[in-house]
């Protein structure tokens, strides 16, 4: 069946395009709804479609033994030099087998719409979209989070608790003196005393017994991790840049900002728990990838690339590729009995000025000061000089008073003691959260050995909540925030159907917050599973065996 529909050509003139095929029993051209690609309804020769020509009508579809209703919707279809208005149909019955899966889920449609970016506006790039934490927070605002945040358990924000109540940790400054120097513009590469302190810390913890040492000229201070990554991206030459899936959500937008390199996604094997191995790095370099970007420890999986594996990766990259190591979670290491040891690529560098290894870390995670926005990059002097220069037009440099206040925090012995206390406390919280989740029936193929994240598999849950977006939606109704796993499948909305993503059935939850917040969030999980009648039969028995955890300082 065909009918005439209106379209608008590039001059803005409204015209008619005759004989646009609209039958659901034929392959409709790939539609673009509000600028996004979606699949056409599958070809189904066994069905008959009744189409009426009047616009904005509810149509009836007779398929086999059932009768279902479909609502007409307008779709923008970009074809060559003009935009044609087409029709598609959204099922009122989620069981209809020929309506594509995303259309059956309001939260999936909402996600896809957000990740096509903002509506076109003068001077605004319409392709910019929200990162995971921003998007989830915006959805939580719609449910009252902005008005009553104290009633919510935010397990989505990737931030550690910032209180001074962790036993063994040093007390953070409550006030900061502002020197006369602090009133002035600071160097875009950071003040020399802090650069010296960072270099000394890494030499003491990671360069003992090695001839090549870091100096202050190997360090650039940046206003937070994202700013540091953007500076790095700005100075890269023409190259293929390999990044892994899943990984840190902000890489998604950073990688799309610059045209001086081509980002190449490297999917990791779910059967291997999304681990990085040297064979995969070798394969990518042989294919022409000359820059590798990754986090270690890994966000969102909570896994660490082991010291021997990391050394092999660095050996493969040496003289062949630039390695960018995001080490913001390096302090959260539970693989060495919480002895304060920090795993870093700095251990395996032969020459700090010859090995093309850039390490980024800061006060944000392991010093639990995300609000200070003080971070650093270590690397060869020529890289650091370029990073300092581009700071003059990208961000203007880091807050000088906070840089001055950070210097005494980086004394090597003080940091070692701090990391030991940090690791013991966060391992305790990890074990508490995993224990409660296991009692609820969640299964773990491995125990996270780093970070403060749990990459939670939902596949065993009822179908209506066994994907990250719909589970997230259920959490909002219980005043709990998590991050759907789809956000860590970098740029999925432009690469594939959301339901085909290997991250689709996961959420990332953080055990960074205080213990009372963790308990509140897990109580919300429990209520969700009760509503869907999917708690284990012996849950009540196991629940009574779990330790009661009240307040911040209680250890389960």
Automatic annotation (TrEMBL):
Domain Aminotransferase class I/classII large: 176-496
Keywords tagged on the record: Aminotransferase, Pyridoxal phosphate, Transferase
BP GO annotations: amino acid metabolic process
InterPro entries noted in UniProt: Aminotransferase_I/II_large, AspAT/PAT-like, PyrdxlP-dep_Trfase, PyrdxlP-dep_Trfase_major
Renumbered residue ranges of the record's region Disordered: 34-55
SUPFAM superfamilies referenced in this protein's UniProt entry, alphabetically: PLP-dependent transferases
Gene Ontology MF annotations: pyridoxal phosphate binding; transaminase activity
Entry similarity comment: Belongs to the class-I pyridoxal-phosphate-dependent aminotransferase family.
Protein name: Aspartate/prephenate aminotransferase
Lineage of the species this protein comes from: Eukaryota, Fungi, Dikarya, Ascomycota, Pezizomycotina
């Amino acid at each position: 069946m065909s009918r005439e529909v209106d379209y608008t050509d590039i001059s803005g003139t409204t015209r008619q395009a005759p004989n646009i095929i609209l039958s659901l029993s034929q392959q409709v051209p790939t539609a673009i709804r509000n600028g996004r690609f979606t699949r056409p309804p599958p070809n189904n020769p066994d069905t008959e479609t009744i189409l009426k020509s009047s616009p904005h009508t509810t149509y009836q579809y007779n398929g086999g033994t059932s009768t279902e209703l479909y609502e007409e919707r307008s779709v923008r279809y970009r074809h060559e030099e003009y935009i044609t208005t087409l029709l598609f149909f959204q099922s009122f019955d989620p069981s209809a087998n020929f309506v594509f899966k995303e259309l059956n889920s309001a939260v999936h449609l909402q996600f896809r719409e957000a990740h096509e970016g903002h509506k076109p506006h003068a001077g605004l790039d319409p392709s910019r979209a929200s990162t995971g934490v921003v998007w989830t927070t915006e959805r939580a605002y719609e449910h009252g989070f902005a008005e009553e945040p104290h009633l919510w358990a935010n397990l989505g924000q990737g931030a550690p608790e910032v209180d001074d109540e962790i036993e063994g940790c040093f007390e953070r400054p409550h006030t900061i003196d502002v020197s006369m120097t602090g009133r002035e513009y600071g160097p875009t590469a950071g003040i020399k005393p802090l650069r010296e302190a960072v270099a000394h810390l890494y030499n003491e913890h990671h360069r003992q017994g090695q001839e090549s040492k870091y100096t202050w000229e190997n360090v650039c201070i940046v206003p937070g991790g994202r700013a540091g990554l953007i500076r790095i991206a700005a100075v890269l030459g023409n190259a293929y840049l390999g990044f892994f899936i899943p990984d840190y959500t902000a890489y998604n937008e950073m990688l799309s900002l610059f045209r001086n390199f081509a980002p190449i996604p490297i999917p990791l094997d779910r059967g291997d728990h999304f681990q990085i191995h040297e064979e995969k790095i070798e394969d990518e370099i042989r294919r022409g990838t000359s820059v590798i970007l990754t986090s270690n420890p890994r966000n969102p999986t909570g896994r660490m690339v082991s010291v021997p594996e990391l050394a092999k990766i660095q050996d493969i990259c040496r003289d062949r590729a630039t390695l960018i190591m995001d080490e913001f979670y390096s302090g959260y290491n539970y693989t060495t009995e919480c002895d304060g040891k920090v795993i870093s690529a700095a251990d395996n560098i032969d020459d700090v000025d010859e090995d093309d290894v850039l390490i980024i870390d800061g006060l944000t995670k392991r010093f639990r000061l995300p609000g200070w926005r003080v971070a650093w990059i270590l690397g060869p002097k020529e890289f650091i000089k370029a990073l300092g220069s581009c700071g003059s037009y990208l961000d203007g440099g880091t807050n000088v008073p906070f840089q001055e206040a950070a210097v005494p925090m980086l004394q090597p012995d003080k940091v070692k003691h701090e990391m030991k206390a940090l690791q013991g406390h966060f391992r305790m919280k990890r074990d508490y959260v995993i224990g409660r989740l296991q009692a609820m029936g969640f299964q773990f193929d491995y125990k996270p050995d780093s970070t403060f994240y749990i990459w939670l598999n939902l596949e065993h849950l009822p179908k209506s909540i066994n994907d990250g977006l719909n589970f997230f939606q259920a959490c909002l109704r219980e005043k709990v925030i998590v991050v759907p796993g789809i956000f860590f499948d970098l740029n999925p909305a432009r690469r594939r159907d959301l339901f085909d993503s290997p991250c689709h059935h996961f959420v990332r939850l953080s055990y960074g917050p205080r213990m009372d917040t963790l308990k509140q969030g897990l109580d919300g999980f429990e209520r969700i599973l009760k509503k869907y009648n999917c708690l284990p039969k012996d849950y009540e028995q196991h629940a009574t065996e779990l330790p009661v955890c009240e307040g911040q300082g209680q250890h389960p």
